[in-house]
Amino acid sequence: MKIPKTLKEMPLTPLSLPTIGSMGKTGTWRTFRPIIDYSKCTKCTLCWIYCPDAAITRRDDDSPEIDYEYCKGCGICANECPVKAIAMKREEE
Ligand code: SF4
Ligand code: SF4
Fold first, then answer.
1. Fold for domain 28-90?
2. Is-contact 34 75, C-beta < 8 A?
3. Does 78 sit in the ligand 2 pocket, CB within 6 Å?
4. Residue ranges per domain, the chain?
5. CA of 19 to the centre of ligand 1 (A)
């Protein structure tokens, strides 16, 4: 496998395991829901890299998109976001 040298060379699907769906629809586990404020997002892709459920995809312009069927609300993305563009909100809010 050719090792990507730039972000643009990295595939849009995550490199890490587990892959989407390997533990079922983990979105049903969620108590808190991450909400991205796109006006703050710098498209650094850190949330996409850190999400342990591969529930964040990278759009063509590198902005992140959360798949709520698989996001289990762990909050890692919100914790790692350097500009605090992700807020964790209670599901019932
Ligand atoms: S809260 Fe963030 S890091 Fe955790 S599963 Fe959902 S999208 Fe991934
Ligand atoms: S970590 Fe924050 S700034 Fe970086 S892409 Fe994700 S939401 Fe945007």
1. Alpha-Beta Plaits (3.30.70)
2. yes
3. no
4. 28-90
5. 13
2-25: pLDDT as tens digits: 777 777 777 666 555 556 666 778
- Number of C-beta neighbours around residue 91 at 10 A: 10
55 within ligand 2 shell (Cβ under 6 A): no
Residue 55 Cα, ligand 2 centroid: separation in angstroms?
Answer: 14
pLDDT tens digit sequence for 48-70: 999 988 899 999 999 999 999 99
Residue 13's alpha-carbon distances to 4, 26, 28, 67, in angstroms, are 13, 18, 22, 13
Q: Is the CB of 85 under 6 A from ligand 2?
A: yes
